[in-house]
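Narrative summary of target 7.
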Amino acid sequence: MKHSTLFRNPQVLARWVVSLVALVVVAFATPSVRPANAQEATCSLDSLRGSQGCELRLDDFKRYDMTDANEQHKWRLTLDHATNLFIQLFTPGADYEVWLYAGDNSTLLGGGSHEDQPVDPYVMRYLQPGTYFVHIRSPRETPPSTGYVLHVSELGYAQPAAVQSAPLTSDSAASVRSLSLFSQRGLPWQIAFSPDGQRLAAAVTSLRDLGDQESVNGTGLLRDYGVKVWDVKQGREIASLTGGGDSTVYDVKYSPDGRLLAAAWGNNIVLWDASTLQFVRRLSGHAHEISRLAFSPDGRTLASGTIDGQLKLWDLSNGAERATPADGGDNNDPITGIAFSPDGNLLATSSKTSGVTLWNVKSGTRQGSLQGLSDAVIDLAFSPSAPLLATGSRDGGVTEWSVPELRQLTTLPSDGRVRAVQFSPDGKLLAAAYEPSSGVAQASDGTDLFDPEQTGTAIRLWDVGAGTLLRTLQPVYPHLALAFSPSGNMLASSGPDRFVALWGVPDLSGATHPAHAADRTPAMLWSDNFDDPELAALPSSTPDQPRFTRGYADGEYFIQRIDPSVGVPTTVLPGTYADASVAIDTRIVGDPNGQVIALACRSSSGPDGDSQYRLSVSPADGSFQLSLWQSGTSTPLVPWTSDASIHPGTDSNHLELSCADAAIDVLVNGHQVAHVTDATVRRGAFWIGVDGGQSEVRFDNLAVSLR
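Modeled conformation, tokenized:
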């Protein structure tokens, strides 16, 4: 992605940062009065890990007189390392304020007043270790029937509040609230729900060109890209698919039958099995970056449009290119929107200067077009229940057209630029995302980036039948993409603030807080079967080529130790984790005598040496060892022990090493061979390696999961 000068120019970038700070100060300004003592509780970061978060039930309601800040709830929050926080207040009543103070209890860091939103999130990023105080205040004369619930979790583990299962309607639109935020380390350019509504995928574009130097948990730049897959119910990332190279990822879509997940990755389309997230195939043929994707309703055809206006149709039964519409790529005009009609007979495309075109899918011929529109059409969507096509333009107009004749029916005017339009699954609601109408830079696909100095950000919900505005939602930044859940009970939006937000009507009659970690099952973060080295995440080069090598061969990953005097050759897996497991198939190549397979979890480097939990397996004699390494010194937790579960010689073994809380577990070929309790090392990376003499180990079917 070629980012605008808004982010390449240091002075403009500095102005952007100052504007962001000013936005927070203006939006959350309040007198920095030292609050009186009230209810307190302590939440350590350990309890934030594992997704359960911290909760405090505030049944002893205290009234806050707006003219005298002397009554409020106070909650002490203790952090042991730098982190991002997601704070939610669940309450059956309205009118409250949430403020965050530094450890001196008088320095205001931020917060917000939400007079009309019973449930709303509050995000504070990159807090350093220390003590903080969260204060809740309300002007209500009488307490609510049930107490408030304050919930805090690390970003990446936020879960929606209990949400009503009924679809959003014109009657319930007024009660729509922001429910949760999923954090990204890049810009979530497009988003898509799986057909069963259990997962949400985001096409995340790298921010590496923005000069962003912020860190997460104290380490690492905020540079990320790829396809992120979230478990909607558990509210956490379960997969990070990064094997398509470092090209821009502009779009992501699930097939209607839920079998495939597709991403527009540079000028290729990458397909995964939507359930297992294993690579299926790559579709190649475009010369330029693909900007938009769309599956046909029967799931047999995939349409792709590029930044140079080229349109292609793909047969998903064999990955072959179908007949391309006759004049679908002659104008070098970026395709900004693409959608199939509900019956699959028509395909609509929008572009920056050429308006809207309807194509006959079977014949590949032009069915109709809209020319001479007042401004560029940025997005479009077919109604699932009526012969309607909605378009969103850069001049702020949302227009409904009858199809196939493309006769204009209704225009829903508003200020700002329309970035996305989306019908609800029943076709009764239309959502439109707006951004400011001026000062917006352009990306290479012809769409617009944001200018944080502008105002006017909004997501508007319209009643399609009546043509009336039902509700205006206001995220902090303009949001780029919208997606209704398949049941229609939630609307997801994503924007350059790096968050995917979920909006819906909370169910305040029952449980109003997220489930705890004990109720959750392990969720896969990412996997790799090593069948395609170009899509793999592990390195194929070696820093010490004469002494050891590593790479891909015959659908496997290998590490070969050439010089017996070298230390244990390893490959570090992406990411650092507190509670996770690694599973992998391994086998020895050649004589197994003296060869050792090694796995490690929570590995980190220090000035005195590495710390980690290491599993060593010797297939030659069927034995293993589990050891704690601390500052380069090894202590056996389980000494070398023979176990019949280990397949001998050069046979393949399936190894799993899990580090969750203080429990370290080892499974070999599905049988648990070790369980120890040790909390010395709390966080770090996984690695795989080989030990012994001149040895080679092959690896296959790698999977990393949260515990």
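Residues 10-27 form the longest helix (18 residues).
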